[in-house]
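seq/struct pair 1
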Amino acid sequence: MMERGLWVKIRHKINAKRHITLIHDALLSAEPTTIGIIFVTTIDDSLKLVLDMPEEWNSTMRYSGAPLIGAKNKEGVAFFETFLSRATTNEVFARKGYQILP
C-alpha cells in the first residue's frame, strides 16, 4: 500500500488494534460503512470482503515455528512437532491459503 501511495491517503482514518481478533470484533459492532484491513483467513460469514489485495502488493510473510532448546515439556514439544507434520494439519493450512514448505 505504501508503494502505491494508498497508505498516505488512508492512514489518518486508521484505528489500529493490537490483535487481529480485536479488529474482527470491532468490525462486527461498527457502522456498516466501516472497513478493516485484516488477513483473508480471518474473514468469516459475519464479514464481507470488499477488496482482495493482489499478492504483488504485499511482501511474503512467513510464519515459522520451532521448539525452544530449553523447553521443559519435551513430550508436548514432540506432540506439537508431530501435529504440524500431519497431512491433515497441512490440508487445513493449505485450505486457509498458507503455502506448506517441505
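seq/struct pair 2
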Amino acid sequence: MNINLHSDKKFTVRPFLTLCATVLLTLAAASCDSPSEPLLPSAEGTASLSLRIEAPATTRVENVTDEEYAAFENRIRTLRVLVFSENGSILKNETFTAEELAATSGSYTHTVNGLPVGKVNIYLVANEGSIGQNYSNAGNFAPDMVITDDSRTHFPKRYSQLDNTDDALPMSAYQGEVDIQTGENTASLSLIRCVAKLRIEMVNELTRPITVNEMSFGTFMADRFYLFPQTTPSDVPDGITYDDIQYGSQDDTSQHLGIEIEGGATRVLVLYIYPSYAWTSGTDSPYTIGFRTPNATYDRNQFFTGSNPLSYIARNTEVTIRALLHTDSNFTLDFAVEGWGTATINVPSFD
C-alpha cells in the first residue's frame, strides 16, 4: 500500500489533505490454517497485502507557518488496517505506530499475510485516539458508522490546544467488495481527514495595538459525524445537534486569550471542527463569528450568508475567515473555501 500526498482540486473546495493508498494484494500458493488466526475462513490460497507508507515530518515551531500547520495536519500517529470478509467476519486487524511509520527515513513497508480468495471490505482509520476510540477489539465495521461526541470533548479544538506530540487529526477510508483473485490484485483508497479546518485571520487596520481576549462562534459545532465519508448529499448523520462555542472571556481576566495584534499586523487562529451542515432552510445563517477586546465588542456576524454559494462546512476542507478590524466598533468579514488555488467570496460589512 502506497500512501502519498496529493491535492484533488474541485470548485471552491479545498481538501486540505488527501492521502492515496494503493493496496497491493498478491496471492501465493499456501494454505491459511495458522492456529493464531482462528477467524480466517478456509480459502484456496493466501494473499499478502503490501503497505508502503510515507509519513510526514512533525516539526513544530513557536511562530507557526503554513509548513508547520501542514506537518501537524499530515501527521499519522497510528494507522489501523481492518479487513473483513463479505459475510462480516474479521480477517485482519493490524495497527502501525508512529515509530513504525517513521522507519527507514520516512517510509515503512509491511506485508499483511493470510487474506483468502474472495471479496473483502477494507477499512483504514488513522489517529483513532484523537476521537477517543480504540478498535483493537473491533466487532463489525460498517461504512455508515457514527461517532458521537455529546460533550464535544475531542473537537472543536484550537491548534494551540493540540501541542502534545501524540496529538493528530482523525482520518479514514473505506473500500467495499474488493475482489481478491488468484494472481496480483490492486485496490485504491483515499485516506481523508474527518474534520474541517477554520483559519481565522485577524487583521488590525488601526494604527495602535489591540488585544483580542474573547472569540465566539455561532451554533454550528456538531456533536457527531460519520467515521467514513458518505456519498449522500449530506455527510452528517441523523440526530445531530449543534451548539455555539466561546474561547476566552473579556469579563474574566483569568480567561483572557491575550492575542495581541500590532497596528497594521495580522494574527492567525486555527480551529478544527466536525463536519457541519447546520444551516437549514428558512433560518438565519448560524455561521457567525465575533470578538471582544478591552475597548470594543465586535458582535457576531455571518461569514456564510444567503448570497454565498456555500451553506455548510464539509470534512477535509479549509475555510479561511478574514476579519478586518478597522474601527473600535466595526469590522468586515471575508471568507474563502479554497482548493489549493483561491476563490474568495466577500461578506458585507458589519453595521
